[in-house]
Every structure is written in structure tokens, then in C-alpha cells.
Amino acid sequence: MLFFSYFKELVGKEVTVELKNDLAIRGTLHSVDQYLNIKLENIRVVDQDKYPHMLSVRNCFIRGSVVRYVQLPPDGVDIDILHDATRREARGG
Amino acid sequence: MSTGPGLESLVDQTISVITNDGRNIVGVLRGFDQATNIILDESHERVYSTKEGVQQLVLGLYIIRGDNISVVGELDEELDANLDLSKLRAHPLKPVGRWTISTLNGVFAMSRVFPLTMLMDEEEAVD
User: One GO CC annotation, please (chain A) (predicted)?
Assistant: First the structure.
């Protein structure tokens, strides 16, 4: 639940999602769900020449199970808030 | 709040699906469920190659199991019409790969494995 809540706070920010098939997609975080499925808008594939497979796609839904990394903007990360939330989750979650 | 993004907004739209084995299938989304199983109408597979243009294989009405889906993209018909698929050259997408644990000389090792047939499709090495 912690990361679901955390990603909800990041809606509207630019993120880069790296998938398990090495594809990396940059876009604006539109929404997230309990499975950490991610919807991105105005996407741009990171190495577009190598991966032209999504040239006609503007918005996409990424299945949570296939995500390797979600790269976040540094100013989108509040370490203190994350620490508190983690402690709370470990205690009662 | 907990149903989140869902594919509701994409029903009856043309979508581009990337599957876990690296295939790209384009079609009209007719239905879906919580497991991301989808029903795809008028679908065709786009096969990318470094040697020739994109090949389109007609499939028809398909159910794709959610287990096997990586990405569901909303296809922009305008952008797609501007693409000359016959000129596109690209390596096929990589499969997602699975983790396996094996022992070597009594030591446990975790490694990511791919179906061997997928890697041997092209003559050039896949980076």
C-alpha cells in the first residue's frame, strides 16, 4: 500500500519506467493502481531509434509485473516523508 | 480509488500491445478484466526485422492472457498513418525473461533466462 500511496502523490510528474525487456519509457504519470500498474501520457521511448515499436503511441498502460525501475525526479522525493511512512508500515501495516 | 487506471478508457479504441515474448499486436480493444486479460478485435501482429520492413500478420479476434502482457498503448491513428512501415528496420523487442535458481558446484545462483529460440531468430547478436 505504501508505494501505491507514494505513486499517487507523484501523479503529474515526469518519470521514466524501465521494463524487464530493457525498454525504457518516459512520460507524465497519469495514474497508478493497487497492482502498481502505471498509465503514462505523452510518452517518448528513451532509445527511439533502437525501439521504434511505439512511435504511434502517445499514452500507454504498463503492467506492474513487468516494471524493473521507475526513475523519479529528485525533487519529487521527500526522504523524511518516506522514512516516516516506512516506519508506520513496518509497525502496523 | 483502488481500481485506478484500468483499460476502461481504451475500449473500442485501437491499441498496440507488447507481449512478454516481445511481440507487438495491434487491434481494437473490446474487453478486459482485473487480471489484464484482453479481448482484441481485428488484430494483426507487426513483426519487426533488421533486414526488411515491418511485416503485418492478420490474426482476427483474439484473447490475450494478462500474464503475458507488458504494455498496452493507445494507438494514435494520425501518427500511425504517417509511418512508413515498409521502411522501418529494427531488432525485435526482447522477451521479458524469467528468473531461475540453479546450483553450480553446490552454490545457489540466480540468473535470468530467455527462451533460446527467441534469441536465435536473427543472425546478428541481440545486444
Answer: P-body
Contact A25, A58 (CB under 8 A): no
Q: How far apart are CA A18 and CA B8, in angstroms?
A: 24
Q: What is the pLDDT of residues B9-27, one digit of tens each?
A: 999 999 999 999 999 999 9
Q: Which domain holds residue A61?
A: 2-91
Within 8 A of A39 by CB-CB distance, chain B residues are 5
- State the CATH architecture for B4-94: Roll (2.30)
Q: Which uninterrupted H or E stretch holds A6? A: helix A2-9
Cell of A53: 515499436
Q: Are strands B107-113 and A38-45 parallel, antiparallel or unpaired?
A: unpaired
CB pairs under 8 A between A and B: 101
Per residue in B99-120, pLDDT (tens digit) is 878 887 788 888 888 776 655 5
Mutate to test the interface with A, among B7, B17, B18, B64 (most CBs of A within 10 A): B18
Residue of A23, A25, A31 lying closest to B93 (CB–CB): A23
Count the domains in chain A: 1
